[in-house]
Amino acid sequence: MFGGQNMQQMMKQAKKMQQQMADEQAAIAKTDYIGHAPSDVVLATFNGDRELKDLQINEEIVDPEDVEGLSDMVIVAVNDALKQIEQDQQKRLGQFAPKGMF
Q1: Selecting from 3.40.50.10490, 3.30.2060.10, 3.30.1310.10, 2.40.50.140, what CATH number does the domain 33-93 have?
Q2: Cβ atoms within 10 Å, residue 101
Q3: What is the Cα–Cα distance from 86 to 2, expressed in whole angstroms?
Q4: How far apart are CA 81 and CA 27, in angstroms?
Q5: What is the rounded distance in angstroms from the CA atom of residue 65 to the CA atom of residue 42?
Q6: Per-residue pLDDT at 38
Q7: Do the record's keywords include Cytoplasm (predicted)?
């Protein structure tokens, strides 16, 4: 059989890569990513599945007359955490897929 040995080797390598990718995905899902607003006035904690687990707001920035400012700080912290997840996924899983897939 022509190439039978090479095909088996390729299949083993593919299976190994699939397992490595699954392991990395599981590690990402278990990781907490904490997004920070300036001076840590708002902290947003997500897991790797992009589920918000915790939102901490420093009471010193709570001003009933500036709800918009508080909202902006929450958005900054949330976006920071989501960016961290994206970067970690690219770093961990990018080796297994074409650029920009994760």
Answers
A1: 3.30.1310.10
A2: 10
A3: 43
A4: 16
A5: 18
A6: 96
A7: yes
Q: What is the DSSP letter of 51?
A: -
The C-alpha atoms of residue 81 and residue 71 are separated, in whole angstroms, by 16
SS3 assignment, position 98: coil
Closest by CA position to 42, among listed 66, 62, 25 = 62
User: d(Cα 10, Cα 92) in Å, to the nearest integer?
Assistant: 22
Residue pointed to by tokens 């599981």: 26
Q: Rounded to two decimals, what is the model's pTM?
A: 0.78
Map residue 34 onto helix, strand or coil. Answer: strand
3-state secondary structure at position 35: strand
53-83: b (≥16 Cβ within 10 Å) or e = eeeebeeeeeeeeeeeebeebbebbbebbbe
Mean pLDDT by 10 residues, the chain (102 residues): 76 92 95 97 97 96 94 97 96 78 56
